[in-house]
Amino acid sequence: MQYSKALSDPPLKERYGAFLSNSSNLQCSEVMEECELPLIDISTLRMTDDEEERRPCASAIAKAATEWGFFIVINHGIRSELLKEMRKEQQRLFAKPFEEKSSKILKGTYSWGNPMAKSLTQLPWSENFLVPLKMIIEDQEWCSLEFSSLRETMEKLGSAMTDLAHVLARVLAENLGFPGDFIAEKCSMSTNYFRLNHYPPCPHSLGTFGLLPHTDSDFLTILSQDQVGGLQLRKDSSWYAVKPNQDALIVNIGDLFQAWSNDFYKSVEHKVMSNSEADRYSVAYFLCPSMDSIIGSYSEPSHYKQFTFGDFKKQVEEDKRRTGNKVGLPMFRL
C-alpha cells in the first residue's frame, strides 16, 4: 500500500495528514556510521554435537550477544527459496486495500502506526500484522482462502525459525552453564509470534521513524529483511545503521534473555528509519515462552524481581497506554 493512496483512508488521513503538515514531528536521528554486525557461520551448530567443533561458533555467538546484543547468522539452514516465497506473499498481502487488511484477511492481527500513541511523534510510518504461531497452527479460519498459500508458507517458516531459535538459545544457555534445552522447554512453536512489517515510502523520510526506538519483549528475535535498509541500533550511547544483507538473518537478544542472564546478554534498543523512495519489507520471528512461564535470573543475587511473561506483557501494555512508550525491564529491576 502506497501511503499517497493510503492517506485517502479516513483513519490514516486523520493521523498522518497532521503528521506530514507539521515538520516539527520529524525526529533527529544521528548515525555516526554504518556498522557491520558480527557475522557468524553457524553450520557446525546444525551439523555436529561435537563440543570441540562447536566451541568457536558458540563463543562467537556469546561474545556478540554480550557486546552487541545483535549478530548476523549465515548457513542457518532455512532455505532461501522459503524466505523468498515469504517475501512474495508478504508483498501481495500488503498490496491489499486498507479495509481488507484491517478486517478481512488475517483475523485481528493488523495494525498501522501506533494505536496507543500520545503524540504525533509516537506515530511510526509503517504497518504490520502480528500473528501468533498458535493461530496459524490451530485456527483453520484465521485467514481468508485467498491467502491459503500465505498460511502454508508461514507454517513452514515458523517451524524452521523455531528450530533455529532453539539452536541459538541452547548455545546461549550452555554458555552460562545451564542445560541447553532450558529455554526451549519454555518456548514451543505455539507460543511464538511473527510480525510481518511494511515500511512504505515516506515523503518526509529524513528523521521519520518507520519503527520507534524499542527493545524486544522476548528471549530472542530472528529477522529476515530486504536490501532497502533502515534498521539502526544503539551502542555506547550512539546510533549505528545496520548494513542490510537479505541473504543472511539478523538475531537480537530480547528483554527476557537479558533478565534471565542477569544482564550478561544485552537487549539493545533499536529502530527503523523511513525511506523516501522504496518500500521496505521484513519478517520478525519472536521466541517467547508461555504467559505463565516464570522468568528468573540464572544466578544470584538477581538484578530483577521474579515475574512471569504475562506480568511483563501486562506491564508493557500498561506503560504504552499511560505514556505511549514501552518502559520494559527497568520496571522489574530490584
Automatic annotation (TrEMBL):
GO function terms (MF aspect): metal ion binding; oxidoreductase activity
Cofactor(s) of this protein: L-ascorbate
Domain Fe2OG dioxygenase: 190-289
Protein keywords: Iron, Metal-binding, Oxidoreductase
Pfam families attached to this UniProt entry: 2OG-FeII_Oxy, DIOX_N
Entry keyword Oxidoreductase: yes
TM segment ranges: none
Family: Belongs to the iron/ascorbate-dependent oxidoreductase family.
The protein's name: Fe2OG dioxygenase domain-containing protein
Organism: Zingiber officinale (Ginger)
